[in-house]
Structure of Halobacterial output domain-containing protein:
Amino acid sequence: MEEDDTFVYNIEDGESISEAILTAVSSISGVEVTNLEPLYTVIDPDALNALFGSYSDGTPRDGKGIVVFSYESYQVTVQPDQTILVSEPKT
């Protein structure tokens, strides 16, 4: 984790948002991706991919919104620039 206890993950070329979330949470938790709870139990991965992925012609979306949800005891934030932030939940 970084100084403010937030792990920042930048999506790789060709990686979907849902894949990036799994990779980020796996990295911070030390749990293999295959041993994580299925992402679909907390959020619709297809909807996330559609919201933050490129248009069908490859043009990047220029959205302004973010999505925040809990997954594997972490707070996951997906930002419009396709950066994933993973942190301990705020209390």
The chain has one domain: 6-87. The longest strand covers residues 6-10.
